[in-house]
Amino acid sequence: MKALLLVDIQNGFCPGGNLAVPDGDDVVPIANRLIESGKYDLIIASQDWHPPGHGSFASSHPGKKPFEVGTLSGKPQMLWPDHCVQGTPDAELHPDLKMGKIDLILQKGENRNVDSYSAFRDNDQDALTGLADFLEGQDVTELDVCGLATDYCVKFSALDAIEMMPGVRVRFVEDASRGITPEGVTAAIEEMREHGIDIVTSRKVLEG
C-alpha cells in the first residue's frame, strides 16, 4: 500500500492567510496532480486546527510579537500570528484542492498548551494523532509527504513518519512543498535526507 500525506494545505498558509508561506498556493496544482495520478492507495490531509487563544499565538503573550521566541508550558516556543483557528476560513483546506479523493482528514494543534507541527504527534511527542496506527493498520509500506511548510510541519511529519513506522519508505516531494525561509528549507531537506528520507520531485513520482 502506498499513501500520500498532504500537510496543512490550508488558506492560512497560502497568500492572503494569517500565516502565509511565500508562494504557498503554488503547491495546490502539483498536489492535485499527485491526488489524481492513481499512484496512491490512500490519501490523507492534515489540518492545523487551533482553538482561539492558542498558546503558540503571539497574541497570547503580552508584549510579544509574531516570530519572536517565547515559552509555552515552560519550553521555548516560536510565537506565531493567530492562524488556522477552528471554524474560520483561515483554517479551511485550500478551496482548489481536490477533496473528493482524500480518504482521511486529521486535525491537529487542538491542545492550547502545546504546539503540533507533525501530523503524527504534538511537539512534546506525547499526544498522538493516531495517524501512525492508521497507516500501519492499512499495511502502508510507502509514504510520500508534501505540503506546507517544508521547514516546519512537513519536515516534522516526515521525520516522525520514519521514526514511528520502521520499515516504511518515506519520501519528501520537494516541488509539492513550500517553506517559510530559503535557509529553513535547505536545512530541513538536509535533515530529512540525513534521516533516510528520499527527496523526490512530483515528476519522478508520476513517472515512477
Task: Kindly list the characteristics that best describe this protein.
Rossmann fold, alpha/beta, 6-stranded parallel β-sheet, globular, 208 residues, 8 strands, two-stranded antiparallel sheet
Question: Can you walk through the features of this model?
Answer:
The longest helix is centred in the last third of the chain and has 15 residues, at 150-164. This protein has one domain (2-207): Rossmann fold, CATH 3.40.50.850. The protein is 24% helix and 19% strand. The chain is globular and about 50 Å long. The protein has helices spanning 27-35, 131-137, 150-164, 182-194, 202-207, and strands at 2-7, 42-48, 69-72, 75-78, 104-108, 142-147, 169-173, 198-200. The chain contains five helices and eight strands; from the N terminus they run βαββββαβαβαβα. Strand 7, helix 4 (182-194) and strand 8 (198-200) form a beta-alpha-beta unit. The two termini are 15 Å apart. The chain has a six-stranded parallel beta sheet, with helices on both faces. A two-stranded antiparallel sheet has the order 3-4. By secondary structure, the chain is α/β, with parallel strands linked by helices. Helix 3 runs parallel beside helix 4 (182-194). The model has no long low-confidence stretch (mean pLDDT 97). This is Nicotinamidase. Keywords: Hydrolase, Metal-binding, Pyridine nucleotide biosynthesis. It comes from Rhizobium favelukesii. Pathway: Cofactor biosynthesis; nicotinate biosynthesis; nicotinate from nicotinamide: step 1/1. Its EC number is 3.5.1.19.
